[in-house]
Amino acid sequence: MVSLAVFGGAVIIWPAIILNELMIKSDSESYLAALTEEPLKFAAFTFLIKNRKVFDEPLDAIVYGTAISLGFAAHENYIYVYQLSGELGMLPVDMAVIRSMLSMPLHACCGAIMGYQLAKYKFSNERWALGRALIFPILLHGIYNFQDTMFGFGFVVFFAVIYVWKLYGEAKKEQQKTIPISC
Q: Residues of 107-137 as b/e, b for ≥16 C-beta within 10 angstroms?
């Protein structure tokens, strides 16, 4: 299922590219990509994972959400490194290093946040968690794309990693409540 999630994330890059080309007219509007990419990840989770028997523990949602996002980010990075780096005036290796330290963790964090909220929706019956599963990653991704300095990108990623670490701890506690302790 994790491989399917990664593959699903990689496939949704194509509709994201089309939608982003229709919506984003200049670099100053790059934050709008969050409005296409995160809903597509949400749709991939809903279509591929939501009703599967293997989605039976809170941490599963974080794993699958992160896997979808990393599949998406890996395919997006391939495009940036091998097709766009020259157009952007960068060597492919420089582009790869920068994106591995910034965009990959950002996408992973957005997927983990989405997964955490989907787990809250499914396992704790929190109605509003479904909306948060979409809104929080869109906001985080939009704020990230709005930055124009390496410091700004790094700060957003640092905040996102700290936040996801906190959510992981909460999800782990929830998971321990759902798993019976055997003697």
A: bbbbbbbbbbbbbbbbbeeeeebeebbbebb
Compute the distance between CA of residue 99 and CA of residue 52 in angstroms, rounded to an integer: 32
Contacts of 141 (CB under 8 A, 6+ apart): 33, 34, 37, 38, 106, 107, 110
Residue 126's alpha-carbon distances to 52, 63, 130, 173, in angstroms, are 20, 20, 8, 16
Structure tokens at 73: 């980010």
Tell me which residue has tokens 């990653």: 137
Q: 84 Cβ partners below 8 Å, 6+ apart?
A: 95
pLDDT one-digit tens code per residue, 5-52: 999 999 999 999 999 999 999 888 989 999 999 999 999 999 999 889
In this structure, what are the phi and psi dihedrals at residue 65, rounded to the nearest 5 degrees?
A: -60, -40
Tokens 């782990």 belong to which residue? 172
Q: For residue 181, what is the enclosing H or E element?
A: none
pTM surpassing 0.85?
yes
Residue type, 178: T
Q: Where are the alpha helices (DSSP H) in the chain?
A: 2-11, 13-23, 34-48, 58-79, 92-101, 103-124, 129-146, 150-178
Secondary structure element (H or E) that encloses residue 56, with its range: none
